[in-house]
Amino acid sequence: MAKLDRVEEALGKARTGDLSKARTVSRDLAKVPPAHPGLMALAVAAHQAGDLPLALRFLDRAAVSGSADALYGRGVVLAALGRMDEARAALRKCLERAPTHEAALTNLGGLEQVAGDLPAAERCYRAVLDFAPQAALALHNLAGLCLAQGRRDEAEDLGRRAFALQPGPDTALRLADILGEAGRHAEAEAVLRPVRDGHPGDVRLWRASGHAAKKLGRNAEAVAAYRTALGLDPQDGEASHMIAALTGANPGRAPADYVRGFFDTYADRFESHLVEDVKYQAPATLRALFDRVGGGVPLDTVIDLGCGTGLTAQAFQGAASRFVGVDLSPRMLQLAAASGLYAELREADAATALAHSVNLSAVLATDLFIYLGDLEDIFAGAARALAPGGWLLFSVETGEGEGYTLRPSGRYAQSPAYIRGLITRHGLTEMACERARIRGGSGGDIDGDYWVVRKP
Fold first, then answer.
1. How far apart are CA 286 and CA 394, in angstroms?
2. What are the structural domains of the chain?
3. CB < 8 Å & 24+ apart, contacts of 16-24
């Protein structure tokens, strides 16, 4: 059978879900003309079947023809394979051939945004809007970028335009997020409700509705929305955590998948929100307390648990020679890497990171324990990992009684009695505890306890 006939045969099989012939053809693609339309069709079939490497082989051959669509397809598949630099290069090559390729420009903007080059991402989205001002996806993405930079008025305008053009779950969620960031939760709920009613199986809309109702003080409605979300997805960590928070349950920690997903989504606007909106000051306050208590003692290797983008390492610059950052969120770790503050970064939970650490000069944890109620493993791990004379420096929201409490906010608070019990049980020494503001909030300032603890 001639090679071109085999392409048609492979395509016919692929349309029934059988990729066996397509794999056979892919081993001898040099004999298939790059412009053969069957190559693109086979790439699409392989992509839809989840065989990305096979799809890429067909796209590689089709791209030899210089086809803009083949180059675009290569960019999409390479991105899905995690080969981001190659993906951006493929999309740029596509745009050399077709400067107004809307999908290529929009996707390139998305990849630049993920890579942390927000100006490049914005240029891509605005280039799309120059020739396609009604491009809902570009408007939607640019709204998210502006929100990440704290440009809320621009974000809202863009988000409303995207929603008006394409009033679906994605645009509703983006606009509700923008409104929620401004404290306009009733407006956010009004945006969400009709879209949720039209898409009752979208768990994201129920979660967002629960969040808006909680912020409006309608806890029974919030619990009902979160329970609907959990019914749609029994593995939904956010829904289960917020149900616990709003019904008085007290699990030991927030689900890891919830924390990871929350911070992956929140990462790009993390610093602008904390520093500019809620005037977060825990790292600076903890550093000032350590300087007073520690007397400027130099530190060697310091592990920064829940490092985020690096605000705590930044506050402790000059106090230590080497910082190791730990976070559950891959996106946070990307941004932490870009800061240049860390000698090493690890994607791990705090207890696991401590279990794999030795001879540390200090363990830092600012605002991490709002996601961990039970700190037994953390104190045990710190006591093992710290060198003699090492320091455990952390903040908590101030709790009452003898233990820890999951508050309706979804954050944990630990009482001084609970922390002192941990210190004693693990052979550590309390050096200082001071109460001070941690951040602002919709209900006013949130106070916490700052602790300086030492290993003898």
1. 7
2. 167-249 (1.25.40.10), 273-454 (3.40.50.150)
3. 17/49, 19/45, 19/46, 19/49, 19/51, 19/54, 22/46, 22/54, 22/58, 23/54
**Geometric angle at alpha carbon 115, from 113 and 116, rounded to 5°:** 65
- Across 133-169, b (16+ Cβ under 10 Å) vs e yields eebbbbbbbbbbbbbbbbebebbbebbbbbbebbebb
Burial class (CB in 10 A: 0-12, 13-18, 19+), 86: middle
pLDDT of 1 > 70? The answer is no
Mean pLDDT, all residues of the chain: 91
| Residue indicated by tokens 């059978």 | 1
On whether the CB atoms of residues 192 and 212 are closer than 8 A, the answer is yes
Position 440 scores a pLDDT of: 67
Alpha-carbon gap, residue 170 to 177, rounded angstroms: 11
d(CA 222, CA 263): 21
- Cross-sheet strand order for the sheet of 360-365: 344-347, 320-327, 299-305, 360-365, 386-397, 446-454, 429-439
Closest residue by Cα to residue 314 from 288, 342, 291: 342
Residues 223, 243 contacting (CB under 8 angstroms)? yes
pTM of the model: 0.86
106: left (phi over 0), alpha (psi -120 to 50) or beta: alpha
pLDDT in tens, 405-448: 999 999 999 999 999 999 999 999 999 999 998 876 666 678 89
Would you place residue 20 in the very low, low, confident or very high pLDDT band (cuts 50, 70, 90)? confident
CA distance 315 to 252: 29
Please state the φ and ψ torsions of residue 351, each to the nearest 5 degrees.
-65, -40
Q: Which two tokens stand for residue 317?
A: 């610059």
